[in-house]
Predict the structure.
Amino acid sequence: MKLIEDLGTRLINGEWIRYAIFLCPECLQEVEKRLGNGKINKSCGSSECKENITSYKHGETNTKLYAVWRNMKQRCSNPNATQYEDYGGRGITICPEWTNDYITFRDWALNNGYAENLEINRINNDGNYEPSNCDFKTLKENTRHRRNQKVKNIEMANEIRELEKTGNYAQKELAEKYNVSIGMINHIINNKYWKN
């Protein structure tokens, strides 16, 4: 589980106990847990996690396809995920049969063209992750399809950086002005794309 916020210590039954808020990677919920002996459970133990725990007993948690599924869930369901604003924040969801069952997603992917060198692609960029709207593309093909490919040259990237430095524009405003995602604006400002 990922630590989100340390809540400090509380006096409970004469003992000082430290608590924190964690993000559960299984059900994507924020949960308050006691910090004990340094061990942090892999899941929050909620009924949703217990219900879905069988999905994680498939021996594929270290595969690329499992990472595709996990990352898809994160960007659509976790407000703390870096790409959430461009997916879940825009209302992009995942069909229930994929959300709660990796095996169902895996079987669909393997029967619909998945290969290690490909990425999942939403055919309609404003549509959801579901069998009728997804296929697999190379990184190059998928990049061309993304809605955030409007910054065409270093001059535009530098203009974005200069506007951000003035303090007059929030990243959200710059994203709207240039018709790109907030993530793209963040990458440009931090020299991850269109490096100075």
